[in-house]
């Protein structure tokens, strides 16, 4: 069997000595959640076999169990290469949904809570000379109200805009060999004005006193070098760049980096990575890339796959979703209700694709501030992991946080806190507190509006300059006071969602157009209504492809175009009023 998802999983921090641990693992469902008491971590086998990194709900996993699974177990034997002798062995998990406990040779080495971010453990002291075994327990309860689970269905089956669940391992598992003195993370902050990059390197205690060397390259040619001596666990060095190549929409110019730790004159750790030289800003109520107004022609991307659920079947499939979107005339996407994997962001970086980073907040009850413990640590981990991707042009931690049980103040407190933490960690990007409803403190005022009549859609924003959004007044008169723009840039971050005709089957917004021509006419009318309004900085169409029963995509779930993409490219790339105004 060919190794699934064999590509290096962490493209901005690449090491030479690593092993991919995807493939066949032992597997067992533990719905009674008695595995820890029965010491499953000491067993010599489990009763099924699964293909990692695909979740057990998926066809590609070989399990395809779509019922609720409260707890699942994984097991595989682990062989350590002989040439790694004397090195520290780090075990990495790209993502495990939701609460993971990891054992090596029956001993617990770490736990991790959160279904979307990576975690790792130094397993060196738990290893034997031979016969090593990894065991992982994953507990998952999408109905608890205490875990973000995005669009995963809380009912037995998929329904509406909620889809098949993901349980357990769903991203690559891998290990690498390092010196005790090694690099743990890197963050790049570029400056287009003085043509430089600030490199923040996070290291282990054993690296204190080492020399840090950073080299940069563009298309193989050296563009800069700087060194410093490490005195704390975070070392900063600024590299002046001899060549200026801006990262732009549709033109993902990337600088390559090589970072070395040097101890007693010997390189003890070496990694390769990359960054983009670009700046995002809000100026004159416009979204700007590198100082120039750019209209966001975004599309909603759910990150689901018919055979892998949360996990793309291949690296090529991740890349293709971006290429399909660009072929339709979009310049980016809202990565919706899911923290996407680093390999997707790598391709977005390479292709010059502008994306919004979002958490999977649905499923989390935010009616009291204590719920922050179930949200904030994972969100901070996302910000730290993905900070350096130039393709991420803004953050939106929440989506549609309605006033649950009228507990308005509690919801507001959580949104305000998460916004403030996000801005404290990342001052280089705009932040939307919650997409749609209800804003508390936000850099951009975004709205969801699924009005299907283009003329009525225009009417909804005719008095937006004065803070009146008729779409909200029509939906609920109380919303006019609950959510009112205060002069922020305006973004229609969900619209369209045009339901396609499929008898009585499927789900979408509005009445389905009678034929393809009527669908295209409606799409053109809705989209040009937004393009022609100089108050809008961008739109986000719902959605790129169908997902299960939701049939409002411009592509089918198996990624076939429903219409000639040239038609939509022509519509989506029409000049926007705000770009012409800010020229």
Automatic annotation (TrEMBL):
Molecular-function GO term, any one: hydrolase activity, hydrolyzing O-glycosyl compounds
Keywords per UniProt: Glycosidase, Hydrolase
Domain Glycoside hydrolase family 2 catalytic: 318-496
Keyword set includes Nucleotide-binding: no
Domain Glycosyl hydrolases family 2 sugar binding as annotated: residue spans: 19-137
Domain Glycoside hydrolase family 2 immunoglobulin-like beta-sandwich positions: 182-278
This protein's record includes keyword Transcription: no
Pfam families the UniProt entry points to: Glyco_hydro_2, Glyco_hydro_2_C, Glyco_hydro_2_N
GO biological process terms on file: carbohydrate metabolic process
PANTHER family, per the entry: BETA-GALACTOSIDASE (PTHR42732), HYDROLASE (PTHR42732:SF3)
Similarity-based family: Belongs to the glycosyl hydrolase 2 family.
Name of the protein described by the UniProt record: Beta-galactosidase
